Amino acid sequence: MHKLYNQNMYNFGDPQPSYWESTQGLCKPNGKPLVSNETYDVAIIGGGYTGLSAAYHLGRKFGIEVGVLEAGHIGWGASGRNGGFCSIGGAAGSVKDLVKRFGLSDVKAFYKSQVDAIELVKEIITDNNIDASIQGESELYVAHSKKAFNELNELKNFYSQSLGLDARNISSEEFRDLHFDSTEQYGALELKPTFGLHPMRYINGLAVAAEHYGAKLYPYSEVQSWEKKGDYHTLHVASGSIRAKHVIFATNGFMPETLHKNFTSRSLPVISSIIVTRPLSNLELDAYQWKTLSPAINSRKLMNYFRLLPDKRFLFGGRGSSSGDKKGETRNYEYLAARMKSIWPEWKDIEIDYCWHGFVCFTRRLTPAIGRLSDDKSIFFGFGYHGNGVNTSTWVGKQLAIWLASNNMPAPISRLSQGLSPKFPFAPFRRHYLQAIMTWYRVQDSLR
């Protein structure tokens, strides 16, 4: 595959040094690398939330035989590396900009699907007895300045009055009493429903459930070429192939640039990095009156996201390096640690036990891309979740399963997300767009 970033980002055979991988437990799928030539009703490229949700629903609801090809281990990509936020989002940019582009009705439908997606994740976890370590009941958008709090108050009004979301503002004093304090705490917007989870345990549980309903999973089976003859697609891996009448393309941030012409230059993967501390003592937590289990983000354009984990470790994430090389990521982890300790200075001596990174997938449209190809209706796709993939991709996988089985686009797919997003111009230089964007965001943050 053509690579936008350093090879360090694409070593599919390497385990990830994440907290999630080291604590994933014993529940794992049974899949093995593909070493034969197989035929299925549906072939899925990508063993993350989108692909496995599609496989799960195709098997459970429709009895359709599915083969899933994953380049790394199951959940190797963003599905096993994210911050574990099951939250409302899925699109980038401001909600008011979305309304200008698509209209209030379509934006409202999109946000309803986000709430439905969160409930779907809960349903899958409950129905399949997945030990996903669910925490909290809301997402906290923490204002980093008084001006930012005023902006969040306007956003709360729009969320609740125009979109019908469960949103409320919390003053700085009330927030300190209910949740925590920091040097950048000027109140917050609380948005429900949202919760935190263990993303690796969730993806493993979803994979096991998909297997239970008949899906065959093939880890370490990167698709190297794709051809179609007559009604059948053939996906070739190093030591075998899958032949199928339908293909679901679900690779998200690791989308191969040369595998299929329709998907070239459609996405912009952006590196996000996470650090996790050693377990904090009660005394250390009391220094900032920490009480909440709900996941949180701050209101900066170059935002950080954070949450207290079940074993009292602290997870803190943010923007990654610009290239993905090891030296750049080491510098970025050091920056993240310094950033965290500037917000909570009493934690300046707390050790960092885990550091890792991965991709967030953007589209040029800044909304998810969900659909089937107009020139080959046997190919379906879902990608571009803009940092909110836990619930969005799970929901997208279900919609693709319904669409494929019924041959009708499900009504819940909002116009915001229908079809492929336009290609990025000057595609080889996509990564360099980010430098200008990040500079502009820093300027905006300095003014807020």
TrEMBL record:
Gene3D superfamilies per UniProt: D-Amino Acid Oxidase, subunit A, domain 2, FAD/NAD(P)-binding domain
InterPro entries hit by this protein: FAD-dep_OxRdtase, FAD/NAD-bd_sf
Spans through the membrane: none
FAD dependent oxidoreductase domain: residues covered: 41-401
GO cellular component, one term: cytoplasm
Pfam short name (any one): DAO
Protein name as it appears in the record: FAD dependent oxidoreductase domain-containing protein
Organism, as annotated: marine metagenome
Lineage: unclassified sequences, metagenomes, ecological metagenomes
